[in-house]
Amino acid sequence: MIRLTEHLVEDKKTFKSSLHKKRADIQGIPTNLHVSYFRIFRHFGSQFVPHPLMDTQASTEDLLGLDDSDAHFGAAISLQSLSMQERAMIPETHATVTCGAPTAHAMGLSDCGLREMELEMQNFQTALEKSTPWLMGSPVSDSNCFIPEDSSDFFYPPMEDENEAEGEEDADTPVPNVSTSPTAAASATVVEPAPKKKASKYSMMARRASAARAKALSSNRFVKKKSSRQLDQKNSDEKNAVYAKYPSLRVESEEGVDPTTSINYAVRVVCRLEMLRTEYYLRKSVAVSQSVSSLVTCFMAELDLCLQERNDKVLNQMAKVGFLIGWESLISSHGKELYMISDAWVAIKCLETFSFKLCEGTDMEVVVEKQDVGYIIKIPVPPAQFAILPESLKSGELISVTSVLFTQGINEMQSLANMVGHSGVSIQRKINSTSFRTISEYYNRFTEICGIGMSEVSVGSHPDEILRNLRVSVESENSASKNTCILLHAADAVRSLNGGRVTYCKSGKDRTAMSTTLEQARLLVQRKRHVLQEIESGSATEYGPLEEVKDVANMMREFGVRIHVAKKNVGRFKYSFNSLQRKLLPEIYRPPMSTIQDMVTSVTARDS
Question: What does the pLDDT read at residue 583?
Fold first, then answer.
């Protein structure tokens, strides 16, 4: 998978459409990743005279990094040197990153996600700690301590190396061939760890249990004919994934046996814990790989805009407070999409272990270095732009990352989850509450270090007011309705704090298109506070600001770039909604009727 990805990067063929999101060999690449720029011109009419700075601003090609010329940087004027009236005349540019959910589609989404796996590992660890003192004090020499029934009742897909549970940590450890003889089985219990890295006792126990499991499977008296249910399970889509899924071993204690003193129970728990831990690390690596790609894309887009505009205030904010990235999730809290939220939440919070370092150079390759407490992403900056940076960033100071996720399902599955009171709704509420606390802490750090003198041009309100509105929306969230105001207030809050924005749904082309065009229409209409009031109260007037926003959004949905993104993925200038699905969307997220599919096509030509 890594070698193929490197080859695709060399060939500059790194786009993964929504049709390929389940391909295991490229699952580390984000799905349908796009960055778009939305430029607003404030003045119109024949008497409008462009400000001189407008001629020096970069074109779309410059923003996308297609033009290597540094000429416009020499002529650029700092925004801080302009008056408020002059600043209002300058075109306003916003960057938006969109993608599919950062999740491991190829590893399956019917059983659990990263969050559920963390909870299960914690439960196994708690159970193991109760029996660890006795277990670790007694050497295990009998491979039959692993109960054969736990192995023979399940079908285990073949692995390249059964005993390589620790991956690179045990890469140098000699592993003997496992056979059915007692001598070979006993030899598996005396494997010594590599001198470079000492294997944990849990890993040693897992290898012993694995050898015993292989012996039990090869024994004729325990071989059972696979049932039709097991064969169907083997032939299912998720069993065809490259990376095999481990079944749940029986870990409950036997009747009349104390689990704290049972060696059999302890070995079963260790074996299951090691299997689960291996799958967790692989799944997390895939999800984090996708989320980091979106993070780097978003950061470079925002950094490019700051350098184009010579926005010293935002550059100083990055150096002193860090980079804020706000994720907007539109996937539902029901079914497989609930586990997408689980994967994405863990992957997005993991981004806070990354930091950015700006380096002077013309090499356009981004380098990631591992540190003791996280990772450093080195971003090369051409010399002309590097000279604009604050002294702290020039000297190599790191830019920390603060990552928040606000989620609210908007499709028909969210309607179903709300009707039946699905438990996923409470997870959605918990994620939003945690993210609100995180963004509030970021705002407090910002006001302490940089002050509160912020421009209200792009969002129409002061951050303090926006955060109050966001808090009300988060606290009033209930499981009976779709509270889309959370998404709108969260988007305004992130933009008011000069953060980057990433919007995603399952495939990054349909619900994402509805949200992105709505946000751009709200940025265009300079009465967003009144728009939100109409949305919250449900009292839209015929010619009010909300109707204006809907008209602008629908025009973008029908004739803008989002319909071309849909065509790029599925080959049709149509969003993957039918009339029923469109009706179940919130009104402000409904696409024009001319852009949706018929009922038959929406079922037969699905890309999921």
Answer: 93
CA gap 191, 173 in Å, rounded: 8
Helix (H) or strand (E) holding 266: helix 263-309
Interval 193-230: pLDDT, tens: 444 444 444 455 555 555 555 554 454 443 444 444 45
Residue 62 has pLDDT above 70, yes or no: no
Range of the domain at 576: 509-608
Residue 212 domain-assigned?
Answer: yes
Higher pLDDT, 137 or 95: 95
Where do we find the tokens 């300079």?
526
Of 521 and 456, the one with more pLDDT = 521
* Burial class (CB within 10 angstroms; exposed 0-12, middle 13-18, buried 19+) of 92: middle
Q: Determine the Cα–Cα distance for residues 384 and 76; give it in Å rounded to an integer.
A: 12
- Would you say 148 and 264 are in contact if contact means Cβ atoms under 8 Å apart? no
CB 243 within 8 A of CB 107: yes
**Measured CA angle at 493 (ends 489, 495), to 5 deg:** 120
Please identify, among 282, 304, 327, the residue that sits at the C-terminal boundary of a domain: 282
Is 393 domain-assigned? no
Q: Cα 266–272–274 angle (5° rounding)?
A: 100
Is residue 10 scored above 90 in pLDDT?
Answer: no
Are residues 146 and 209 in contact, defined by beta-carbon separation less than 8 angstroms? yes
- Using the structure block, give the residue that is written with the tokens 């736990």: 150
Q: Residue 256: inside a domain, yes or no?
A: yes
Whether 501 is covered by a domain: the verdict is no
Q: 298 catalytic, yes or no?
A: no
387-423 burial code (b ≥16 CB/10 A, e <16): ebbbeebbeebbbbbbbbbbbbbbbbbbbebbeeebe
Q: How far apart are CA 154 and CA 228, in angstroms?
A: 13
Which letter does DSSP use for residue 31 in this model? Answer: B
Structure tokens that stand for 604 in this block: 């037969």
Say how far apart CA 457 and CA 40 lie, in whole Å: 12
Domain final residue, candidates 282, 312, 330: 282
Give the tens place of pLDDT for each residue, 368-426. 888 888 999 999 999 999 999 999 999 999 999 999 999 999 998 888 888 877 777 88
